[in-house]
Amino acid sequence: MLLLTGVASTDDYKRLKDKEIIALKGRTGLVLINFWATWCEPCRSEIPALNRMHKKYPSVAFVGINVDDPENRGAIRGFLKKFPIDYEIYLREGKDFESLTKHFDPDWKAGIPATFVYKDGKQVFARLGGISETELDQVLD
Known about the structure:
alpha/beta; Glutaredoxin; 33% helix; 25% strand; disordered N terminus
């Protein structure tokens, strides 16, 4: 597991191409994939809940995918100092975000935050916009 905190530089973050991001859906067991950006206010608001749920459900793989544009990546280090993320995160390496969303989930209209839960490769939950701990409890229980 790759755990990254606000003390790393952006060079320390693993980058995933869209094909690799899409492959995350196929992990065995439960996997929660959350797409976020430093400029996204609802993303900031849900990070503490995602951190708590990550601790509460240790058997669930929590994965955060940062979708900041490359020119904004300098903001990630400061963002993670202010809003630490306790689960694995990756930087998206790609240019066409709409293409990723279409291939990841045809119903996703490219907004963030976006959270998806898969069980053994099958989608069991999708939420565009902020997510609450109550919703996550219902899905992950």
